[in-house]
Amino acid sequence: MNYATRADMIKRFGLEALSELSDESNSGMTDDENITMALEHADAEIDSYLSARYSVPVSPVPTILRKVACDIAYYNLHDDHPTEGVEKLHKDATDWLKAVSLGKASIGIQDESTGFGIATSHEESDRVFSMSTLQGF
Predict the structure, then answer these.
(1) Greatest CA span in the chain, whole angstroms?
(2) Which of 2, 42, 104, 132 is most buried, with most CB under 10 Å away?
């Protein structure tokens, strides 16, 4: 389950930008394998934050997660030379994910971490010690 697709990346950043980043053979085309790997790494990073509060992977994918996945994958495609703008995209994405993991932000679905109570059907306890059971002591 992917939070974003190649088509989402193209829509967000443009085909030309993705071709420049992913085309290792200089063919002028996008390298789908590199984009897929960047998206998979983004998914793993997102899941590492979300697992504190949600069952992962999250389905259906909220729009905000699609954007965050694209931003992280785009950063991943830059290898060792991200621009300041790309670094900011990544920092903003991870800062938001940290806030989500701490309960300070929401992905727009029900938080699953609040259901750790224990169910019981017995409302009152039977007295173990009473005047009759303690008689003679």
Answers:
(1) 96
(2) 42
CA angle 128, 129, 135 (to 5 degrees): 135
- The owner of tokens 């992977």 is 57
C-alpha span between 70 and 86 (Å, rounded):
11
117 token code pair: 């109570």
Residue 35, in any domain of the structure:
yes
Which of 16-20, 42-46, 106-110, 129-133 shows the lowest per-residue confidence on average (mean pLDDT)? 129-133
- Domain with 19, as residue range(s), is 6-101
Kindly report, residue by residue over 64-80, the tens digit of the pLDDT. Answer: 999 999 999 999 999 87
In a domain, 31, yes or no: yes
| pLDDT single digits (tens) 100-131 | 999 999 998 876 554 444 455 556 666 666 66
Length of the chain in terms of residues written: 137
